Amino acid sequence: MKKIEAIIRTEKLEDVKRALSHMEQNHGMTVCQVLGFGKQHGFAELVRGQKVIPSLLSKVKIEMVVKDEEVEELVELIQVTSLTGEVGDGKIFISPIEDVIRIRTNERGQDAL
Ligand SMILES: Nc1ncnc2c1ncn2[C@@H]1O[C@H](COP(=O)(O)OP(=O)(O)OP(=O)(O)O)[C@@H](O)[C@H]1O
Ligand SMILES: [Mg+2]
Question: Per the similarity annotation, which family is this (predicted)?
């Protein structure tokens, strides 16, 4: 199993949810509002050598724990849906997940997703 953490533009969240709803398989997700900055330190244009305090921009973070074989399709869905081509489109992190427990049934691992 893998965890997909996608930090995207807030206004793209509805599009991602809609795209997910069209998939055959239903997936759970967690969404939170986050503050952060990337390479431009929160500014659209950075003058080389200029030193400014980074500016925290509001984004949305989507977390999904999925089967290994589902990662690529979901990453592509999130990427295509979240793309504008401008700086600040966001980032997707993928990390391994050791185990999952569905509290209600005590199922573990992939069966609990
Ligand atoms: N290396 C990182 N570690 C943790 N969070 C990050 C990292 N890079 C970006 N983020 C998060 O992702 C958000 C969007 O980043 P952003 O899309 O600006 O990345 P970027 O590398 O600057 O790419 P771009 O050049 O397309 O703007 C940031 O506001 C921050 O919350
Ligand atoms: Mg950036």
Answer: Belongs to the P(II) protein family.
Residue ranges covered by each domain of the chain: 2-112
Residues 48-69 have pLDDT tens digits of 667 788 899 999 999 999 999 9
Q: Give every residue of the chain whose pLDDT is below 70, as ranges.
A: 45-49
Query: Cα–chain-centroid distance for residue 83?
Result: 12
Mutate to test the pocket of ligand 1, among 9, 37, 43, 63 (most ligand atoms within 8 A of CB): 37
